[in-house]
Amino acid sequence: MMMEKAERTEAGQTGHVARSDDGANPIAPQPDIPETGPAKRRLESRRKLMEAARRLFVERGYHATRPQDISREAGVGHGTFYLHFDDKLDCFLAFGDEAASELDVIIAAHLVSVQTLDDAVLEMLRGIFEYSRKNPGVLAAALTDISVLSTGEEVDRVVPADRWSLGWGRFLAEMQAKGHVAPDVDTTLAGYLIVGAIRQGGAYASLNGLDRDSTIEAMAKLFVRALK
Amino acid sequence: MMMEKAERTEAGQTGHVARSDDGANPIAPQPDIPETGPAKRRLESRRKLMEAARRLFVERGYHATRPQDISREAGVGHGTFYLHFDDKLDCFLAFGDEAASELDVIIAAHLVSVQTLDDAVLEMLRGIFEYSRKNPGVLAAALTDISVLSTGEEVDRVVPADRWSLGWGRFLAEMQAKGHVAPDVDTTLAGYLIVGAIRQGGAYASLNGLDRDSTIEAMAKLFVRALK
Amino acid sequence: MMMEKAERTEAGQTGHVARSDDGANPIAPQPDIPETGPAKRRLESRRKLMEAARRLFVERGYHATRPQDISREAGVGHGTFYLHFDDKLDCFLAFGDEAASELDVIIAAHLVSVQTLDDAVLEMLRGIFEYSRKNPGVLAAALTDISVLSTGEEVDRVVPADRWSLGWGRFLAEMQAKGHVAPDVDTTLAGYLIVGAIRQGGAYASLNGLDRDSTIEAMAKLFVRALK
Amino acid sequence: MMMEKAERTEAGQTGHVARSDDGANPIAPQPDIPETGPAKRRLESRRKLMEAARRLFVERGYHATRPQDISREAGVGHGTFYLHFDDKLDCFLAFGDEAASELDVIIAAHLVSVQTLDDAVLEMLRGIFEYSRKNPGVLAAALTDISVLSTGEEVDRVVPADRWSLGWGRFLAEMQAKGHVAPDVDTTLAGYLIVGAIRQGGAYASLNGLDRDSTIEAMAKLFVRALK
DNA sequence: GATGAATGAGCGTTCATTCAT
DNA sequence: CATGAATGAACGCTCATTCAT
Q1: Which of A87, B142, B202, D25 stands 20 to 30 A from D182 (CA)?
Q2: Is the Cβ pair C200, D62 closer than 8 Å?
Q3: CATH number corresponding to A37-85
């Protein structure tokens, strides 16, 4: 049955946006972006849909955003939405992946030449807050707990929060290898704790209009103390 | 808005369970439980509904649980649901409050005679994990992000996560006053960070089947280090 | 998954209309039809829906009839439709079953005191055409090939055409036992052939406005000759 | 209505395959097939579409087959479908016509030198079953009731079942003229009855895995008896 | 002639909530 | 106080058809 469904589903769907390597990484393989023809139209539609989806998911949240809202906001027909996404959840996850990729780029840029743990943590937080300032609400929306969204099926999808948690974990492990993090720290667990802390702390800070720089410093101080 | 809603409801709405004094205060005022009469029936219905709601919210999540499911699971008529709750969200928040109160009691018991910050953090975490073990899934469900639930309107209702964050903040402030927490720590922010860390870390631990005791110790160590 | 769905489906659905035994059978067990209360409302809604469904399935056919058309025609809300039927196909099958039961009653009445094969075939056809006259289009609609309707799932449902074919087969077997049908006739196959012939022949007769009585006689003559 | 539709179509629409003279006449006029050039491409596309349509209509049925599925299966662009067919129903009818023509050829071959009614009926049935064996499911699909397909509009198009019924009728009339069929038989009606019987009986036989030869003989015996 | 992305009316269905009993 | 049948706006999604390239 699922096969049949898959068979009858429109082709499209190159999956969730190809990760862009540019930014910190100078030499990016140029994916052949067609300048004309149907493929160009297709890409344009997808871009319009992604932008509209981001806008609406951020503004209204997942459940208050309907596929037809996204289509209208994008200026394409309702059916076009389903030409590019399997369903609403697929669209949301694509949005989350996109945000994750963008943030990765920013953080990579911030980490380019840091040496100490203090700097690294500070720069990571700065990267996150910079992204949040430029893209208000995007991280909060992208971090939405997927288990609340799905109706029991696709719990196996990797959610951005996990991806970032593991990223922090790997980073901390490197730092630990260099002696910057105490040897008794479970770096993977710490990665998860930090992401959780950032999510909740960020929400608190933005809700209560806290000063960004002092929040960053306060958080960095706590994290660094915990890890050293 | 909430006023308007309250006005719409005729029935005597016990509303959201009487709050224990917040935070870590263990003793909740005992409401007088009638032994007979219609009031008893009413309370029984409510109890059955609350139990059913908890079961279903935990098993299926908020969106996959319909008021009708709760009523059926409770063995009462569908209309009875709206005799006890303004709407579905009200019911969910009542569930969250109930869980919060139960957890408060447990934590209070754990804190009865601790003296040091180390012990306090450790015992708090032990309390949380004990509750999680006895009530699997309840905390995760109760901590569900409210913004994901509402359809854009009622973001003003207090969510358990904030309540606990503030509780931790107050507790840390007390500890700071006694000199157990470094004076440069923003205790409110730290409270939020810790709750966020616990949420994400707890999910990680339960998902990956980590040993409870060592997780608690690892988390406690990190928190204490950060705060001292 | 199907379990889950079943669990979340509304109760209702006593299945396809209880066969009415009255008509030829004098002593019918009186099912307790409630005269008041919600059960009565429920029954009334179902009856209104069944009548509307019959009207529309006959007038427009299966695919051109939408559940909401049936609801509107019945004068009930759209949701009420799904309180009484799992889905559109379920409603159509209930309609088919109802028609089958009604026809059974009529045919049974026609067969009450026939002795010869000639009379039996003639009376059966008279019963069928009488029903068709009183309920124009109903048989044609009810005989709609189910395989054309379903989307590949529930092919195991017994379709009216099969039910009638088997009925004819049994009847012919009885007649064969009494020596009224040639011993070399495969009565089951003959049952199917006759139903197929009636369906196609009936359509032809009604389309070309043939005289009913002479058509019946012509068909009866052919059937009897084939069987003797 | 068909005129209007035809006007809408610019392309030179070969339309429904040139009909062989109807009924049992075997020889169809040979359309000149171009060996090269754009006309050849056109014919190739059409052939690919027809083959794909047959495969899918047989496998999935009319409603579960989308024009896009046919195009993809045929390996041509989706738009090409509408270069060759007015709409989906037009394509289905073309498929039915094609099957009818093929069957006509086979039956004509079977009838080449029969003399008696018994032989004729037997050979016709043999032709039908031979075709069914070589093209499983095609007849069942082609015989799909048109009224179930259309959404209320185009009931005026000729359906294969009628075409075959009339063919049988003409054949029986010839036989009647030669004295092989009883003079009191309404040959047109009998033609319809036989096609109906074959359809229903064939379905029964294939569903229950009946032996082909004995089924043919049983059916032939009944038909011949009825007609003599 | 061929393409395939785009279209949007319309589909079948759900579910939070109401209200007559 | 409790009931549960009824409601209908709104949902996510489909697909026969069009048209710019």
Answers
A1: D25
A2: no
A3: 1.10.10.60
- Among chain C residues 144 through 173, which have CB within 7 angstroms of nucleic chain F? none
The pLDDT of residue B44: 85
Residue that has been written with the tokens 């300048």 in this structure: A35
Domain coordinates of chain B in residue numbers?
A: 35-85, 95-228
How far apart CA C170 and CA C190 sit, in angstroms, is 10
pLDDT 10s digit of each residue in chain A, 228 long?
A: 333 444 454 544 444 433 333 333 444 455 555 567 777 888 999 999 999 999 999 888 888 899 999 999 999 999 999 999 999 988 998 998 899 899 989 999 998 888 888 999 999 999 998 998 899 888 888 877 655 554 444 445 566 778 888 889 999 999 999 999 999 999 999 999 999 999 888 878 877 778 888 899 999 999 999 998
Residue C111 identity: L
**C36-85 architecture in CATH?**
Orthogonal Bundle (1.10)
Across residues D90-118, what is the average pLDDT?
90
Amino acid sitting at position C21: D
D42 contacts chain A (CB < 8 A): no
What phi-psi label fits residue A37: left (phi over 0), alpha (psi between -120 and 50 degrees) or beta? Answer: left
- Report yes or no: C148 at the D interface, CB cutoff 8 Å: yes
Residue of C nearest to D203 (CA): C192
CB distance D20 to D26 below 8 Å:
yes
| C-beta of residue A169 within 8 angstroms of C-beta of residue A187 | yes
Looking at the partner chain, which of D144, D150, D189 has a beta carbon nearest the beta carbon of C201?
A: D189
Query: pLDDT per residue over D18-50, tens digit each?
Result: 333 344 344 444 555 556 666 777 788 999 999
Distance CA(A217)–CA(A215), nearest Å, equals: 5
- Decide if C153 touches D, using CB distance below 8 A: no
With an 8 Å Cβ cutoff, are B151 and A63 in contact?
A: yes
Cβ of residue B198 closer than 8 Å to a chain A Cβ: yes
Residue D12 approaches strand E within 7 Å at CB: yes
Domain C95-228 has CATH 1.10.357.10: yes
